[in-house]
């Protein structure tokens, strides 16, 4: 099954990093967050990717074009300009990288890779969020309900800590950043049928996937939510990158489900 990844945005809220590289190439533990996302999918047997490029997309192309060499043991004979591979640590990824435009909105990016998806069920996610989601369970859930779209939903933590206060004003418990106000939000990690393209205009350049298409599917009773109660984090700001780095460096990265 093919996995489409949105990787073309400007990443302006992470400008400290994205002034030099596209957001999906910002590193967590020495590897681009895009690599981490792909490893999550690989863990569940999904290793064919379609990456929607945009801002500084050439850097993503260059990374994967040279990936095999960077992750292999080599002998280079300069006298004959030849080389031989001894051992490789490269993943078995098959990656299609498509330039979907600098300012194209997400629905337009998806529309531009339609020919590479074909007429089959596919997955879709964003190039800036990691999770310990069980993708096998997500896929099974999608196939069980018969609708054309499944969206993973998550409950983000609250912005502030909360207090459990008794009537006498005694604080009995402090909960740091509990779950939010009960609402579920879009956490990415979609499973989709090709019929979702019926909800995309032929020219979707200025249309957000998260707005008109998803709203129309919801109105048509074709959008289901898969509730994920585990770890999920989006890298929106520098503090998010720092937090993810700290988790990785302390061996506490819950999204790392591979060996």
Describe this structure in words.
The protein is an alpha/beta fold. The protein has one domain: Spore Coat Polysaccharide Biosynthesis Protein SpsA, Chain A (Alpha-Beta Complex), CATH 3.90.550. It contains nine helices and 16 strands. It has helices at residues 15-18, 33-43, 57-65, 67-70, 106-112, 114-117, 135-145, 212-219, 238-249, and strands spanning 2-7, 27-28, 31-32, 48-53, 72-77, 82-88, 94-99, 122-126, 129-131, 149-154, 162-165, 171-175, 185-186, 190-192, 223-227, 232-234. The strands form five sheets. Strands 1, 4, 7, 8, 10, 13, 14 and 15 form an eight-stranded mixed beta sheet that branches. A two-stranded antiparallel ribbon has the order 2-3. The model has no long low-confidence stretch (mean pLDDT 91).
